[in-house]
Automatic annotation (TrEMBL):
InterPro entries: FAD-bd, FAD/NAD-bd_sf. Residues 5-318 form the FAD-binding domain. GO terms for molecular function: FAD binding; monooxygenase activity. Pfam families: FAD_binding_3. Coiled coil: none annotated. Keywords: FAD, Flavoprotein, Monooxygenase, Oxidoreductase. It comes from Sphingomonas gei. This is FAD-dependent monooxygenase.
Length: 372
């Protein structure tokens, strides 16, 4: 491709994958990342990479060996419990092709694949404006011109308002994120099984998911108002735990130990962009990943979509013409719309008055059709 100046705003998996693919084509992109360094913030839990999207991107990036060394194909199992602690479903996931990898490990693989200096750490972008030569990207202590700007900066993107008036909307569910290590929490370790565990009741759910290095990430989810979710974010951990104990009163102690023993990491209100989000293409400026199609994590597609977006956008930018990028935006929107519909259905099934029944139905369908 021609040596265009490409700015990528955001150093998550999608932005870093795009940078890697562009570098393989001879381009030297710049990634602007607000964090001061790679370890400044927790990167979240485990990700499952799908063969036709996430894993394909890894292969095209020439990182299959690095991914295989860090991935955990043994952690693809599913368990489902009722509120009384009855095990309704248990599948070990052996033979599936959606291996897990810690988000931190995936990010590190991508970072190590980039040329030195590609990522500008501690660079919060505050201004993006068109000029006679393309686009100016500026923040505290930096200002530079680029031919193309890609917003890969997540659901609360600073780039998206230049293309769309859409904003993420609260989905009615808030997750309290919890952390465990298997050595100190053997009961949670046993409860989780060989992958992830769901316990589902009336508009509430407890979730645990196996991570690497002896860690487990947990989530206590409830349907509450956005105002209450905002209040919870301001509470000290002890008060958040007390609110959860009240919300899950009457559940089996084997399940509520997740609330009682986990280290509270964060309160996360779930938001999503409107399903089918699109915008009028604007030469020189585009989006990928959550900046384009934020959805709840209940489809398991988020990072896979971001990595697939990176592959398609690298191809489009490599064509040298903006019509190819406009076509990419259309393809990305259609793909995102299908996934967002699935995410909305998954969230509605996990948090409903029907308890575990919708989730059990979903698991049984997947047993019959593992690709579903």
């Amino acid at each position: 491709m021609t040596m265009e100046r490409v700015a990528i705003v955001g150093g998550g998996p999608g932005g870093l994958m795009l940078a890697r693919l562009l570098q393989l084509r001879g381009c030297l992109p710049t990634v602007f990342e607000r964090d001061a360094h790679a370890g400044e913030r927790p990167q979240g839990g485990s990700l499952d990479l799908h063969g036709e999207t996430g894993q394909r991107a890894i292969r095209l990036a020439g990182l299959a060996a690095e991914f295989a060394a860090a991935a955990r194909p043994e952690d693809q199992g599913d368990r489902l419990y009722d509120v009384d602690g009855s095990l309704l479903y248990d599948r070990d996931g052996q033979g599936d092709d959606r291996p897990e990898i810690d988000r931190t490990a995936l990010r590190q693989i991508l970072l190590e694949s980039l040329a030195p200096g590609t990522v500008r750490w501690g660079s919060l972008v505050r201004e993006i404006a068109p000029d006679a030569e393309g686009w100016t990207v500026a923040g505290d202590g930096f200002r530079a011109r680029f031919d193309r700007v890609v917003g890969a900066d997540g659901g609360w993107s600073r780039v998206r308002p230049l293309l769309s008036t859409a904003v993420p909307e609260y989905e009615g569910v808030t997750l309290v994120e919890l952390g465990f290590d298997t050595e100190r929490h053997p009961a949670v370790d046993a409860l989780t099984g060989s992958g992830k565990m769901f316990a589902v009741g009336d508009n509430r759910a407890l979730i645990t998911q196996r991570n690497g290095h002896g860690h487990i990430r947990g989530y206590a989810g409830v349907r509450i108002s956005e105002a209450l979710a905002q209040d919870w974010r301001k509470l000290p951990p002890a008060q958040v735990r007390a609110a959860l104990r009240q919300a899950f009163a009457g559940w089996a102690p084997s399940l509520t130990q997740v609330i009682d023993s986990g280290e509270i990491i964060a309160v996360r209100a779930l938001h999503a962009l409107p399903i089918g989000h699109r915008w009028d293409s604007r030469p020189g400026l585009t989006l990928l990943g959550d900046a384009a199609h934020l959805m709840s994590p209940f489809s398991g597609e988020g990072v896979n979509l971001a990595l697939a977006d990176a592959v398609d956008l690298a191809d489009a930018l490599g064509s040298g013409g903006w019509p190819a990028v406009s076509e990419f935006e259309s393809v990305m929107a259609a793909r995102g719309e299908t996934a967002a519909e699935g995410a909305a259905q998954g969230l509605a099934g996990a948090f409903s008055s029907k308890g575990a029944a919708p989730v059990l139905e979903h698991y049984l369908e997947r047993t019959l059709d593992p690709g579903a």
